[in-house]
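Notes taken during the Thursday session

The instructor put the following on the board and asked us to keep it in front of us for the whole hour. The protein is (Fe-S)-binding protein. We were told not to look anything up and to reason only from what is written here. First, the residues (656 in total):
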Amino acid sequence: MQPDPMIFTPLLAAAGLIFAWSCYRRFSLVGVGVAEDRCSSLPERLQGMFLFAFLQKRVVSRPFGINHLFIFWSFLILAVANTEFLVAGVLPAAKLSRVLPMALYQPLVLVFDVVSLCALGAVVIALVRRAVAPPYEGARTGEAFGILSMIGTLMLAYFGLHAAEIALGQEPAAQAMPVSSALASLLAGQGPYTLESLAEISWWLHAGVLLFFLNYLPYSKHMHILAAIPNCFFKGLETPNTQPREEFVEGNVYGAGSIDRFTWKDLFDSFSCTECGRCEKSCPAATTGKPLNPRVVMHDIKMNLLANGDLLQRGGEPTVPVIGEAEGSIRPDALWSCTGCGACLAACPVFIEQMPKITKMRRHLVQMEADFPEELLNLFENMEQRSNPWGIAPGERGKWAGGREVQQFEAGKTEYLYFVGCAGSFDSRSKQVTLAMTKIMEAAGVSYGILGKEEKCCGDSLRRLGNEYLFDKMARENVAQFQEKGVTKIVTQCPHCFTTLKNDYRQYGLELEVIPHAEFIESLLAQGKLKLDHHAKKGGNIVFHDSCYLGRHNGVYQAPRAVIAQATGTAPAEMERNRENSFCCGAGGGRMWMEEHLGERINLNRVSEALEGNPGTICTTCPYCMTMMEDGLKDRSSGGTNVKDIAELVAEGLRG
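Then, after some discussion, the predicted structure tokens were revealed:
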């Protein structure tokens, strides 16, 4: 059953032109962003696109992702059928049944028939899920139900058309179409006029919905159908655990205070967002009732681009601020709620980079507006004047050693620089971890030294909070000092020091080996340099908490678990949220130096999860995590549970 090409051809041409124009207008807006190279390493990018876009590796990592995989591949396969449908509407002689031999045509229509049924089933499941158990609050939108209903309607129209054609005897491959043939059997006894009417109605219904759906896509959140695959191609090739440097010269603008200060990839991310809610569910701020919601941040960036893009393309100034209270603006208190944990990055199935955008906006607030929470003023002053968050005199840095003599680092004489860090030098609880580390290294015969009063803060919190100017100053000084002293290997006990020295300082030309204490201790144990007495399990039942900056940001998951297992004789218990799905302690992203005034405290949420297993000890690998866990235990009045660093467990078990 075919329409009159004289009627359908102009409709298809108009719909195609409008669709092309709409896509051009939308996607051209990303051109107002700052240039950024996302085309290097083509083979690696193609591999990533195949793995994550077509095989949907991240999508299927969550249970409902299987259903989306069915919809996605049904969409791709049926794109062939729909293309044939549209072409045949203009050129009836181009129908596949007329141009393909039956040996090829029959398997093809068999696939189309079965896939259409799978797609219909997946759409029904998605509709029920959206209605009964939506992925996030507010997910029951008319747009979402409308899109799913249109996809379902396309499938029903497909079956209606082919069932009628089979019943009329017009389909030569009827035996290869089990679903359509089964429906055709239900039409037995219907007259030719009824069947022809059904076929004609189904054809036009399919055509109308398909053309409307095509032209609605660029104006809906389902634009991700067009943007998600290329976004996987353009994804960062490394974990986005750092930020680009800024050049500090007179007249420069810093951070992202308007939509055109983001890169084109930042803006393309906003069109790629599926609004699936996975980042929202993973975000510790959103989970505990803070104003930050990564999904909403991406939506607001898109709305801001749509509001300002045309003006910027014409050389005008944006009228809607990217940071503020207006529609399409992001609230400042949302930006300051971010812990920089990277959970949103790990959860996003299409590799949208939410966290780096937040840091860019923080940079603008701090460096261009001097608009930041008042409690950060002391932090910035302490860092600038005394190079540590507490403002303690640098001469106090080595006092953690007490009366013990610890060797200063000397190039050519000491192999490892032990970078103690601010917490390990000044925080009373973390000093015990520092002592445990020195005990371990001495027991293993490691050649190490410290910088003592010459050591300076790495600047992690400054960079994450957006004070790039001060971070840049401190980074330059540290890099110069390391190079002058001939440092080639560094051991850290703080993941924040580790990721900063390892990742951020590479931007300053520092290429050296930075080893987190978890991996360092694991290597000492593997080499047999440490003898442990772990016959008796220490600290009761041990549950392990992953540090975001060691785990998600740097992929170190197994080393601390291996150390705990060797120190106690038993593998640690796992919290429900662990490894790449671990939940933040609440202190990252500079939040260590800020109070939580909104929602539930993040550390309490995490401690409550840890206590579900009734542990004797919560084991950590980070001084910030240790502080937050201990504070949470006090609040929960759980005096029977201790918090220990893995170094303390090992030091307690050393023989002799």
